[in-house]
Amino acid sequence: MSKQENIQNKRKRMKKRIVSQVGNNVGANILPIVVKIVLLGMLDAMSLYGAFALLMQHKWVVLGLLLVGTGVINWIYWRSHGLAAKYLAPGIVLLLIFQLFAISYSAYIAFTNYGTGHNGTKEVAITALMQSSLVKKEDSPKYPLSVAKCGADYSFIVQDSEEQLLVGDNTQPLHHIDGTRNADGTIHSSQLQNCKVLNFSQILQDQSAIVSLSVPVSTNPNDGVLRTSDGQTASAYISTFRYDKSSDTMIDTKTHEQYRDNGTGAFVNDAGVALQPGWRVNVGFQNFIRLFTVKELQQPFLRVLLWTIEFSVLSVLTTFILGLFLAITLNDDRMKFRRLYRSILILPYAFPAFLSALVWAGMLNEKFGFINQVVFHGTEIPWLHAPTLAKIAVIVVNLWLGFPYMFLVCMGALQSIPHDLVEAATLDGASRWKIFRYITFPLLLVSVAPLLISSFAMNFNNFNLIYMLTAGGPVQTGSSMNIGSTDILISMVYKIAFVGANRDYGLASAFSIIIFLVVGLVSAISFKATKSLEELN
Amino acid sequence: MSNKLRNSSSTHASHDVMTSNLTKRKFNKIFVWLRSQGWRHIVAIAVCVFAGFPILYIFSASLNNRGTLVSSNTLFSSISSDNYYELFHMAQHPYAYWYVNTVVIGLITAAASVFIGALAAYAFSRLRFTGRRIGLLSIIVVQMFPQVLSIVAIYLLLTKLGEIYPFLGINSRIALIMVYLGGAMGVNTYLMYGFFNTIPKEIDEAAQIDGAGHARTFFTIILPLVSPILAVIGLLSFISTVSEYAVASTVLVSPEKQTLAVGMYAFVSDRFSQNWGVFSSGAVLAAIPVVVVFLFLQKYIVSGLTVGAVK
Amino acid sequence: MEVFSTRRIMAIIAAASTIALGLSACSSGNTSDTSSSESKNATITVWADADHTAALKDVASSFTKSTGINVKVIQKDLGSVQKDLITQVPAGQGPDIAIGPNDWTGLLATDGVIQPIDLGDAQSDFEKVSIDAFNYQGKIYALPYSIENVALVRNTKLAPNAPTSWDDMVNTAKQANAKYPYLLQIGDQGDAYTMYPVQTSFGSSVFAQNSDGSYDAKNLTIGNEQGKAFASWLSEQAKEGILSTSITADIALSKFEAGESPYIITGPWNIPALKKAGLNVAVSAIPSAGGQPAQPFVGVNGFFLSSQTKNKIAATNFLTNYVGTEKVQEALYKAGGLPPALSSAFEKVAEDDFVKGFEEAGKTGVPMPNVTEMSAVWQSWNNAEVSIVNQQGDPTQIWDNMSGEIQKTINK
C-alpha cells in the first residue's frame, strides 16, 4: 500500500472520530464568543488609549486612521458573514502597518531629493543654519548667569564686570537693576517681585526654551544678543544670517544679500550659491530619469544588473541541482546510515546564516585562512580579491548555505511521487534516466517550482551574504561609484544611500522601487507560468 | 588474497579457472553494490565533508585557547574551555542576555507566525471570496520588497509608535516581534495553503453538518491534521528570526536587549580575527537551539514541505 | 526675595542637601508648577563605539552621581554611528552627543546634524591641533577628547633601539630573522590613513595646505609625481609579500604579538592590548621610506553635539564642565589609552614613554582633513591602494585614475 493511501485511510478514520466528538459537543459554543469579546475588548481599549494620546498631541491624520482601522476591525468581527475577512484580518493588519508602510515610505522618498545636504525638514535646516550662523562677539565678556521665570516668560539676570546686575528677556534689552549676586549664586533684589530664579535642575526642565532665548545687549542690534548654552553663563553673539519669515528668505546681516527658497530645497542667492544644509523637497520623477539617463549610473547599473541575475540564477540552480542529486542519492530505503547523513547535511542550514558568512570570510582569507593554508597547502589563492574568484567564492558559499533547504524540499517531493507510476514505467522497460526525465522530474518540478521562484527573489536581494562576505569587493578602479565586482543591485543601493560623501537616499529609493517592480513582476509571471495558482479557479 | 591463491594453485588448471571465476564474482558483487548502494555512500560522504567541515572548523576554533584566526588552522590542536568561559564574562557584551532574547523572540515569532499564517491559509484554501487569487499572489510578492531600505521607514514608524504606545517603540523586543509578524504572511502562507488543500473538504463539511462552527472546525479539526506543515513553518520562521540582523540592529539599541545576531556582529566587527576563538564559541552555542529543534522536527519537515505543494 | 541659583554645577553637588532644603522652602512660597517635575531627571544619550564605551561608562556614572543628570551611553559600531546620525537626527531622534573622529565634521555639518560648541575661554586649554581638527568654516563643532596618530611600535626583545632610518629598520628585522621587516595593515577595504606617513615620506600629500595650515580642498595634489613614486613603492612591497590585503588591522597585531616582526605601524589604541599580551614595546617616530619626513595624520576624537538635542544645557555641562576637565580627561586616558586633548592632562600623561613616543611621531604630523570632500577622497584612495597591492594593473596608472576620480567628485 502506498504512503499516500495510508495517509488517506488515516484521515478517514480520524474524520469519523472527530465527527463523533463534535456531535457530543454542540451547544458548547460559548467559548469562542467569550474569547472574541475579550480579544476585541483589549484591542479597543488599546485603540482608545492611543486615540487619547493622539488627541493630546493633535495628530489628527493618524488619529483618524486609528479610529477608522479600529472601526473596520470591529465591523469585520461583529458581522455574521464575511468569514474570510475574519481569518485574514490579523495577518493583513500587521502586513499593512509594517510592510506596506515601509514600501509606501520608500516610494514617497523616491520622489524627493533626500540625501546629503537635503536630510530633513525645512525647520530642521533653518535651526541648523541659525545655530551655525551665530558668531561670538570677540570682545564679549562671559557673564555669570541666572535664569528667572517672570510670569510666563524667561529672563536672563547677569552680572557685569562692575558687579552690577542686569536683566533682560527676548523683547526687553538688558537693563540695570538694584541688587547683588552672591558668589554662591544667590540673588538679592527688590526689583524682581514677579520673578522666580530657577535653580539648575529647574533649568534642565525646560532646556529648549532657555537655549533659544536671545536677549538683546542693548537697543543697538550691532551689540548682539546674549545667549547661553550651559545655563550658567551667557555671552553676546551676532548672527551672520537672519531668517525673514514673511518673505521666507535668509538675509546676510552684513551684506544684506538675500538667499531665497527657490524650490530646490535650499536657500540660494542670485549668484546660485546655496546655503548648507538644505532640506527635503519633492523632485517628481527626477530620480527615475537620472537612473536611465546619467551615464555614470548607467554603466555600473547594467554591469551590476547582469551579475545580480547571474548570481541569483546560479544560486538557485546550484543549490537545486545539488539538493536534488542528494535527495535522489539518499532516496533508497535499503541505504544504511540515512538518518546520520541527513542530520549532517542539514547542519549548514541550521547554523545561523549571518554567522556562516563571517566564518567563510575568515576561512577564505588569502594568507591565513583555513582553505588556503590547509586545503591548498599554503597557496595564496586570492579568493576574495580577484574579481572572478570572488564571484565563484560567493556562489560556493551560497551553495553551502542553501543546498540543505533544496535537499529537504526535493526529498519530500520525491517521496510524495506515487510509487505505482514509477513501477509501471519500470515494468515497461524504461531506463532509470528516462523514468527520471519523463516522470519523476516533471512531477517534482510542479511541486518545487514556486519555491524556486521565491528562492530566486530572495537571492536577488541577498544583501547579507554579499555585505558580510565581500562587502561587494574587490573594488573596481575607475568607477567613481565605488561599486565592486560582487556587488549586487541591493548592495549597490545600500552604498548609494549610506556610504560616501554624496549619499542619495532618494535615488536609492528609486532604485529599490525599480528592483521591487522587476522582481515582483518576474515572480508573478513565473507563478502564473507554473500554473501553481491555477487550481484556485 | 587472490594473488596468493593464484600462485599456490598454478599447477591445477581447473582450480585456477575456479578461483578466477570466484574473483570475478567477487568483483561483480562489489560492482553491483557500488552501482546500487556504494555510490550513494560516496556521494553522501563527500557532501557531508563539504557541509560539515566549516562547522568542524568553528568547533575546533572555539576550543583553541589562543583564539586568533591565524592560530586556528590546525584542527583540535588544543582543547580548552577558555573561550567559553570568556564568552560569558565579556564586559559590554552580555552574551547570556543575547542568547535568551534570541530564543524567546524566535519562539514567540515562530508561534505567532504559524498561527497567523494558518488562519490565512485556511481562508485561502476553504473559503471562496473575491480577490482570493490576486490576494494570495500579492501577499507573496509584497514580501519581495528589498528590506535594506525599509529599515529607515521601520525606524521612523517605531519612533512614532513609541510616542503613543511606549512598549512598541525603539529598543522594544515586542516591537521587533511585531515587525517580524508583518512578514508572517508570505511564502509561508503559500506553503500552508498547499498543504491545507490536501485535507479533504468532506472532513470540515461533515463537522459542520454535525453543528460545529467554523472556529471549532478550524481549531479542533483542521489544525491537528495539518500539524506537519505547522511544524515546518514554525521552524523556518524560527531559523530566519534567529539569523535576522538588519531590522534587529535598528530596533534593539541597548546591549542587554539585543539578539545574538546583533550582539555578535557588533562584537566581531572591529576586532574580527583577534576575537576569533570567543566568536567561534559564541557561534557554536548559537547554533545549538536551532540544530536541536531541527533534528527533533526532521521527519515533519520532510513530509510537511511538499505533500501540500504536490497534492 | 532670596532665591538660590548656581554658578557651577559642582557647587550644587557640594551643597546638594542644603540647597535641596532651601529649594523646597522656596518653591513652597511660589508657584508649585515645578514641584512635580523636579523629580524627573534629565537624561542625555551618548553614542560611542566599543572602545570608547568602556572608557566612558565610569566617567558617566560619576557625573550622574554628582549632578543627577543621567548619562546613557549606547554602544554602536563606528560605521553605524555616522550613518544613523545622518538618518535619525533630522527626524528629531538620535542621541544628544556622539563620539567620532574629526574627519566626520564636514559631512555632519553639511547635513545639519551637529551644532557648534561654545568652548568659551576653555578653548585655549586644549592642544591647538585638536581645536583646529574640529574647526569647520570657522566654528568648532566638537569637544576634543583624544589625539591620536600612528607611530612605529617595536618589540624591544627583537629590536632594542629605535631605527635611525628605513634601511636600518629593515636590516634589524633581517638580523632578528623576522618573517616581515615591518607590519603595515591594509585589509580588504584599504587603509590610506595608516599608510599616510609612508606616503608623505615620498613627498606626496592629499591637498595642498594653506599658509595657516588649513587645507585647500580646491588644490588636489595627490596625483603628482611623488604620489606615483609612492604607488610604485607600494606595488614593489606587495610583490615581495610584505604588504597584503590579507593583513587586516587585527591580523597585523596578532602577527606582531607572535613575534613575526619587530615593528608595526600602529596607533595608541593598540597599546593596552599589547601590554596585556605581555610584550615589551617601545614607540618612536616612523623612519622615512622615500627621503622626506614621514607625516602621519593626526586624528582627533571628539564629542559632537546633535543639532536637534532637547538637552542642550545638560549636554553642554557634561561636555564643557566635566569631560573637558583635567581629571576626566585623565580618567578617559587611563581607561582607553588615548592621549588626551586637554593640554594640562596631556602634559601629565606625557611622562609616559608611550605617549612620548607617539607625540614624537606626531610632531611632523598633519591634521586629518575634515572637509566634506574627505569621504569621497577616502573611498577612492583606499580602493586604489587595495588595487595596487593586489597587483590589479600598473600602479602609476591606478594612481592616476584615482586622482582623476577624486577630482571629478570634488568638482561636483
Automatic annotation (TrEMBL), chain A:
- Keyword Transmembrane helix recorded: yes
**Location within or outside the cell:** Cell membrane
Entry keyword Membrane: yes
Organism encoding this protein? Galliscardovia ingluviei
Segment forming the signal sequence: none
Family, per the entry? Belongs to the binding-protein-dependent transport system permease family. MalFG subfamily.
Q: Name one Pfam family in it.
A: BPD_transp_1
Bilayer-spanning residue ranges:
21-40, 60-78, 87-111, 304-328, 340-363, 392-414, 435-458, 505-527
Coiled-coil regions listed: none
Q: Which GO terms describe its cellular component?
A: maltose transport complex
This chain's protein is named Maltose/maltodextrin transport system permease protein
Q: Which UniProt keywords apply?
A: Cell membrane, Membrane, Sugar transport, Transmembrane, Transmembrane helix, Transport
Which parts of the sequence belong to the ABC transmembrane type-1 domain? 305-526
* UniProt topology in membrane: Multi-pass membrane protein
Superkingdom, natural source: Bacteria
| Task performed by this protein | Part of the ABC transporter complex MalEFGK involved in maltose/maltodextrin import. Probably responsible for the translocation of the substrate across the membrane.
Single Gene Ontology BP annotation? maltodextrin transmembrane transport
Q: Please name the PROSITE patterns in this protein's record.
A: ABC_TM1 (PS50928)
UniProtKB/TrEMBL annotation, chain C:
Q: May I ask which residue range the UniProt record assigns to the signal sequence?
A: 1-25
One example GO MF annotation = maltose binding
Q: What is this protein called?
A: Maltose ABC transporter substrate-binding protein
InterPro entries for this protein? Maltose/Cyclodextrin-bd, SBP
Keyword Magnesium set for record: no
Pfam families recorded: SBP_bac_8
Assigned keywords, A-Z: Signal, Sugar transport, Transport
Which GO terms are recorded in the biological process aspect for this UniProt protein?
Answer: maltodextrin transmembrane transport; maltose transport
Q: Name one GO cellular component term.
A: ATP-binding cassette (ABC) transporter complex, substrate-binding subunit-containing
Highest lineage ranks of the organism?
A: Bacteria, Bacillati, Actinomycetota, Actinomycetes, Bifidobacteriales
Q: Which family does it belong to?
A: Belongs to the bacterial solute-binding protein 1 family.
